[in-house]
Design brief:
This protein has three helices and 24 strands. With 384 residues, the chain is mainly beta. The strands form six sheets. Strands 1, 2, 5, 6, 8, 9 and 10 form a seven-stranded mixed sheet that branches. A six-stranded mixed sheet has the order 14-15-22-18-17-19.
């Protein structure tokens, strides 16, 4: 998208919003070069009406539509709209790459509703404020403007399946070759498993996924599940003995979670300012509540033919062992760390719990980890 040029000689009242959008790109819009005050020459110009009843609709992760009520008697006099769009800052907010671009957008007066679109300054799942001025360009190049409208708040949406498919394609590029595995495993502290036995009927119960990964992921803070790993060490073909999540490990045959009755979904692709990349996958028994949730939000993967996690029948590969579950063969991608979310409760009796011999590497935890917004490998051209 070509970035529009700056508008010059604009004088209007100071924006009512205090935040600053740091990096802008918008179809059919220009950017104000500076804030100012009302033109000193507008005393002979009839006062322009303030935009009333502002409505925000059709919100996506990087766009929205805006409209408001206007007096038809003065509509022909209005040549431009000034739109003041600001991110509601908080201590955990993402930082933009540039810091010297003003927040105010200038659009030629077009029929409403008007679409505001721009991945440089709109991020998913983020709260914004917006206010509007109507303006009339004068013969001297200056603008007569209305007062600012009331400030409206809204929140952008999650990634759509279109955006997730873009992430999926990027993840496929670096997934690497497929290695066989036979178990899924889940590390926790001893108290977690004691509680499952004594207070949860011998079951591990799903919990809501944390906010790690892409800011726009539709499963963060919404999907309930149990976190599992399946990556193996290259030299042994077995799970690593180190873990950031606890020294006790529940290990279960792969077919207990992953079989022809399971649907597989792609959930996310991210890194944490390191060379290691993570792919989030969801395993949901067909027809389960988790399956219904994912069908509406996530790209589905063919369980026998994808670049991350596969389940095939041994006879389809010409026989041979290496799998479990009555002739099923399982493989995982070698060059990404897989985070597998199983959406249903799971009986401890289906597997074993034992203490690992390695270390608890807390620095490797992805709990609520923030995605590196500058990584070209795992980011797409929408808000991070």
């Amino acid at each position: 998208m070509e970035v529009p040029g700056l508008a010059h000689n604009i004088t209007s009242p100071m924006s009512p919003c205090e935040g600053m959008i740091k990096d802008l790109s918008l179809d059919a819009l220009q950017l104000c070069e500076r804030d100012g005050s009302k033109s000193q020459d507008n005393t002979e110009v009839e006062e322009l009406p303030v935009a009333q009843n502002i409505k925000i609709s059709n919100i996506t992760c990087d766009s929205f539509k805006i409209c408001w009520d206007m007096d038809p008697r003065v509509k022909d006099r209005i040549t431009h709209y000034f739109i003041d769009l600001n991110k509601k800052e908080n201590k955990n907010s993402n930082k933009f790459k540039h810091k010297d671009v003003p927040t105010k957008l200038v659009a030629k007066a077009v029929p409403l509703p008007m679409t505001v679109r721009g991945h440089w300054f709109l991020s998913p799942r983020t709260e914004y404020t917006v206010a509007v001025q109507t303006a009339s360009k004068q013969t001297d190049g200056d603008y007569a403007v209305s007062e600012w409208s009331e400030i409206i708040e809204f929140c952008t949406a999650d990634y759509s399946t279109v955006h997730l498919n873009q992430l999926l394609q990027k993840a496929e590029v670096i997934a690497g070759r497929m290695l066989r595995f036979s178990v899924f495993y889940r590390n926790q502290n001893k108290e977690y498993f004691d509680h499952a036995r004594e207070s949860a009927g011998g079951r591990m119960l799903p919990s809501v996924k944390d906010n790690s990964g892409s800011h726009g992921s539709p499963i963060s803070g919404k999907l309930e599940g149990l976190f599992f790993s399946c990556n193996t060490e290259f030299n042994t073909g077995k799970p690593p003995q180190d873990s950031p999540y606890g020294r006790h490990r529940f290990q279960v045959p792969a077919d207990a979670l992953f079989n022809p009755g399971t649907n597989l979904y792609f959930g996310d692709f991210y890194c944490m300012y390191t060379a290691y990349h993570y792919v989030v996958l969801v395993l949901a028994p067909r027809g389960s509540p988790g399956d219904d949730f994912c069908k509406q939000r996530l790209p589905a993967l063919d369980i026998a033919d994808n670049r991350f996690l596969t389940c095939t029948r041994a006879e389809e590969e010409g026989g041979g062992g290496g799998g479990t579950g009555g002739g099923l063969v399982f493989r995982h991608a070698q060059d990404v760390n897989l985070e597998v979310i199983y959406t249903e409760p799971l009986e401890l009796a289906l597997g074993t719990v034992a203490e690992i011999s390695g270390h608890q590497l807390m620095s490797m935890s992805t709990l609520n980890a923030k995605k590196d917004p500058s990584c070209k490998t795992c980011n797409i051209s929408v808000g991070r």
